[in-house]
Amino acid sequence: MNTPPEDLNATLNAPPPEALPRNEHSRGRRVASWQEHHGWSAAASLRRLASRPLGSLLTITVMGLALALPLAFYLLLGNVQKLGEALGQSQAISVFMQPGQGAQQAQLLAQQLADRPQVASVIVKTPQQGMDELAKMQGFSGALQTLDSNPLPYVLQLQPREGLSATEVEQLAADVRTMHSVDLVQDSGSWRQRLDALLGVGNRAVLVLASLLALAALLVVGNTVRVDIASRSEEIGVLLLVGASSAFVRRPYLYAGIWYGLFSGILAALLAVLIEFALADPVAQLSRAYDGKLQVGGLPLWLLLAVPVAAAALGWLGARLVSAWQLRKAA
């Protein structure tokens, strides 16, 4: 592919600070010339992207979709964790006393449990309260009327202190099982451990997925820059012949990588926000079903702002690696 003459002339007319003898300019002049060339490179690379809108749009879209996927999974995992908390990730431990134990023994046991540092509160439920709860459940009211006496024992609802791990809560339940007058202890510790394990696997999967998709975005930028450099091999050869340094030649391509990454990062952040809006209505209905206890959150603002910056750095890295390799071949 031949290089258009106007592109070659524009490149040759660009300020080449590295090609000028240092003894002809003061330090301030060199810095000004270096800054001028950076500005020219940024503008020229942006114009070059705009000159082929379809190809640039396709590249940016592919990268944006790749970067939006880990954001969507991160949003999903965060809300699954909140859902687990709303469904009872810190459920109270139910302590059933032995049959025949009265109110005095129940209050004594409740006081012993409340004195433990791992316990936040203890609620005593009488057999009559348990019977009333069963009567409200569908299918139990008729069966309860046939009972001559109340067979339910006293039940203590033990709420663990906030911040306890699943292992500590499990150990607390095991200690309560050994206490006098305790018949049965129901604990959701195994359920909490399963949820924590699933969330751990999910977080690791999101990290691996984000790494793979970031690598894919880097390769997309690298391949685009490689094709661009290959199509301008004659122009690059002329620049090298007249004394331009490799840093001078590759600078526009580095800015091209930055533009690709920046625009794709903005697109990924916008897609993540659109996903949040798309899920807003069904999530609100789900929250109402749990009496507002389910508080679903979106992606933090700092993450949405960090994505374009990280994507721009990723685009620069891909362009840097490929341009250095291509220029070594050209030299």
Question: Descriptors for this entry?
Answer:
4-stranded antiparallel beta sheet; disordered N terminus; 70% helix; Alpha-Beta Plaits; alpha+beta; 7% strand; 331 residues; single chain; elongated; 2 domains; 11 helices
How would you briefly describe this protein structure?
Helices cover 70% and strands 7% of the residues.
The main sheet orders its strands as 2-3-1-4
**End-to-end distance:** 19 Å
User: How many individual helices?
Assistant: 11
Mean pLDDT: 79
Low-confidence runs (pLDDT<50, min 5 residues)? 1-9, 17-22
Question: Which structural class do the helices and strands define?
Answer: alpha+beta
Fraction of residues in H or I helices: 55-70%
Our count of domains comes out at 2
SSE string, helix = H, strand = E?
HHHEHEHHEHEHHHH
Strand content: 5-15%
DSSP strand count: 4
Determine Rg (CA atoms, Å): 33 Å
Q: What's the overall geometry? A: elongated
* Main pleated-sheet profile: 4 strands, antiparallel
Topology:
Elements: H1 5-12, H2 27-51, H3 53-86, E1 93-97, H4 103-114, E2 119-125, H5 127-136, H6 141-144, E3 155-160, H7 166-177, E4 182-186, H8 189-231, H9 233-241, H10 246-289, H11 301-330
Antiparallel strand pairs: 1-3, 1-4, 2-3
